[in-house]
Amino acid sequence: MAFPINNGRPARGFTLIELLVVMSIIGALMALVSPSYFKNNDRARETVLRHNLAVLRQAMDDYRADHGANPSALQDLVSNRYLRELPLDPILGQRDGWQTRPAEDGGIGEVSSGAKGAGLDGSDYGSW
């Protein structure tokens, strides 16, 4: 029941205390939920990175099987239609951030992420 205020009209709205209580409950819930949300977001990026590395390595293996040599650049995989485009490195947010290591017999032998830092498992992104 609303209590009458001036001129006999009922009071409308919430008191300051009621608003503060609701805001503190919302804040407490956000403090509990947000860390797991951001951790899941990082986990999703890492899963995409692992998948994109597997796709790149499979395309390099297919190129090597067809041509008998390693590709000289990642762009060769696109120009020879082993990939439609270079996959995105989700940690860096770019397609040209891949790090390559040369093979002993020439060309690209290995590819990894150029992102600095470590994943949730503690290993460096560049070692994946």
From TrEMBL:
The chain crosses the membrane at residues 12-33. Keywords: Membrane, Methylation, Transmembrane, Transmembrane helix. PROSITE patterns: PROKAR_NTER_METHYL (PS00409). This is Type II secretion system protein. The keyword Transmembrane applies. InterPro entries: Bac_GSPG_pilin (IPR000983), N_methyl_site (IPR012902), Pilin-like (IPR045584). It comes from the Bacteria. Residues 93-128 are annotated as: Disordered. Pfam families: N_methyl (PF07963). It comes from Chromobacterium aquaticum.
